[in-house]
Amino acid sequence: MELLWAVHEQAVYPINWPADPRTWLTPENSLGCWVAVSGARVVGHVVLTAVGDGAEVERLFVDPRATRQGIGRQLLDRVGRTGQ
After folding, report:
1. What's the rounded Cα separation, in Å, for the pair 2 and 7?
2. Residue 72 is inside which H or E element, if any?
3. What b-and-e string marks burial along 1-40, b requiring 16 or more CB atoms within 10 Å of the CB?
4. With DSSP H G I counted as helix, E B as strand and the rest as coil, what are the percentages for the chain, rounded to 5?
5. C-alpha distances in Å from residue 2, one per residue of 56, 60, 74, 78
6. Distance CA 20, CA 83 (A)
7. Which terminal residue of the chain, N or C, has fewer Cβ atoms less than 10 Å from its own Cβ?
8. What is the mean pLDDT of each run of 10 residues along the chain (84 residues)?
9. According to the model, what pLDDT value does residue 23 have?
10. Mind listing the pLDDT tens digit for each residue in 35-54?
């Protein structure tokens, strides 16, 4: 949640701070949630959710201090391997 707050403060994502950040990070319809870690610090997050007969990538964000390092791409690649 610390990372989510930092992203919210610096990048205004999510636009509206969720009433329950823990639930927002791990929604009930999630098929999986992943984080990227650098050292002991969480630097990225993504969730895959069930939508109808399919799935959607949601809540993808990266620590503003760790952008341009391919973290978002790595998270998306991990989500992509889930369906294989």
Report:
1. 9
2. helix 71-82
3. eebbeebbeeeeeeeeeeeeeeebbeeeeeeebbebeeee
4. 35, 35, 30
5. 24, 15, 21, 22
6. 29
7. C
8. 93 94 92 93 94 93 91 93 67
9. 92
10. 999 999 999 999 999 999 99
Cis peptide bond prior to 64, omega within 30° of 0? no
As given in the structure block, the two tokens for residue 20 are 């329950």
Which parts of 7-69 are beta strand (E)? 30-38, 41-51, 54-62
Residue appearing with tokens 């403060």? 9
Written as one letter, the residue type at 10 is: Q
Chain centroid to CA 4: 9
